[in-house]
Each structure stands twice: as structure tokens, then as C-alpha cells.
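Lecture notes, unit on protein representations.

Consider one protein chain, 317 amino acids long.
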Amino acid sequence: MNRMEAGKERGAEKLAKIPVRIATSSAPPLRKPDWIRIRVSSSSKVEDLKKILRENKLHTVCEEASCPNLNECFNKGTATFMIMGDKCTRRCAFCDVAHGRPDPLDPDEPQHLAETIKKMKLNYVVITSVDRDDLRDGGASHFATCLQTVRSLNPGIKLEILVPDFRGRREKALTALAGCLPDVFNHNIETIPRLYKQARAGSNYLESLTLLAEFKQRFPNIPTKSGIMLGLGETTEEIKQTLKDLRTHHIDMLTLGQYLAPSLHHLPVARFAPPEEFKALGEFAKTLGFTHIASGPLVRSSYHADKQASGEYTGHV
């Protein structure tokens, strides 16, 4: 191992050890209300899809992030694919994706992804990733390679990418993505600026907004999309201001959903927003000019993404 490689390895190890700071509380976790209903199914389609994913060495954010809609989406034969491994270089206090020193990029992953999508006969696919702060462009060139390979094997497919913030690598990342553009560009703002240090340590609210705005400036014909979680301790006025910030930075599409703590070791749920609040926020978002809005307790960034993109899904669930 040469000096440069050794330095990269030590840097990755350092990033992997960033602690998660969670405020301790003696209060028991809030009980889930009746409107938080997770659809459970015993259909063999779920296990069949998981088998296909394992055979092709692929990961889905549905599994890695413990998405509440996994059974519903898997039964429909859809999934959000997570590229560049299953270990994230960040340790966000709300997220259930594993963190640690990431594995080297798999050069066969784009082909495996394309073949799996073809086997599943999908028409609309969301591709996301872990944060890869160890890579010079944050993994953007790998995103572009995946998009190009998937399209070459699946003509006519629509591709949405849900990207990390490319912290400190935005210029290189946007240049790399220009080589093969998605149909929708998605980056989640996640929460209000006041809660960033608590929920998104290592990320920056204005940098996330700037990433979305700069992509839109470079590629004005491609819809931009972002999402916010409710239930981390924000106020209604803070949510509305964040929605205004998103529109000021030219974000077209919006998702609003309820935060659900993956475990007792993650940020606790501060409150469960009722369906009426999601509906009201969705109506407020319409007045700001968002073109497509999905707002509901179980809405996630890629939930019914195909219908969100076409406007068929309102998300008031």
C-alpha cells in the first residue's frame, strides 16, 4: 500500500468513527397512533425479489433504511436501489443505514443493476446511495455510469436519482453527472435548519439547497425534488419557511412524511403529525408553486415515485 492509499484509508476510518449524539431522555417512546399503519404481507413476491437482489449483489434502501412501505412496494415488484455499498461514511441520528469504512466500488455493479431492472421489467426506477465522503466526486461518476448502463439495457426507462449532498465535492459531482442525466434529480433536505446539528451532523442546510439550485441552473429542464420529515421537534412555521426556501431555490417536487425512529438508539420521535396536518401542509405547498406534492404520514421520498413524477399520486394518505 503506497502513502496516498494509506492516507485515504486512514481518512475513511476517521469518518467512520464520527459519533452520533442523541439527547438522552427518561421518557418512554411515543406510542404510534392509529393512522401509522404498515402494510404487512406474506406474499412470496417479497422473498423472490430479495433473492434476485442477493444474487446480483445489490442493496435497496427499502431494506437498509427499514422503510415502512417495503412489503407494499416489493409486492408490486418495485424497489429503490442503493448503490456503492451498504456502509455510509456519515452517522445521521435518524437513519438506519449502516455506517463504517465503505468497501471499494464494485465495477460490475452498473451491469448487475441494469440486468436486475430488466429482469424485473421496471419502467421507473429510483437509484440512491450511501454517502461516500471517501471518493473524490462523492460517487457521482458511479451514478452516471449506472444511469448509462441501465438505459442501454432498458430503453425507454425513466430514472430518478436520490443523491447525497456531495459535501465539498459539488462542482466535481455536477460535472460528472452531466455525462448522463436523470429524469428527476432528488436530494432530501430532511429537516429544518435548526435541527441540522442534531439530525444531520456533518451536513449543511444551505449546501443542500445550493446543490439543488445549481443542478437546476445547469439543467433547467430536469425536475428537482426534495423531502422533509415531520416529527423531529420542528414547528409548523419552521416547516413552512423550509418549504419557502425550497421554492426559492427552484425545487419542483416535494415529499412530506412522518419520521419513525428505527430503534431506541436513534433520535426519538418528538410527535406524530396527524393526517390533517399533512394535508394542510400539502395545500400550503401548492400555493408556493410546487408542481408535484406527496404529503402523508407514510410518504417517503421514493414512495410511488413514478406516480409522483406523473402527477397521478397526491400523497394525502
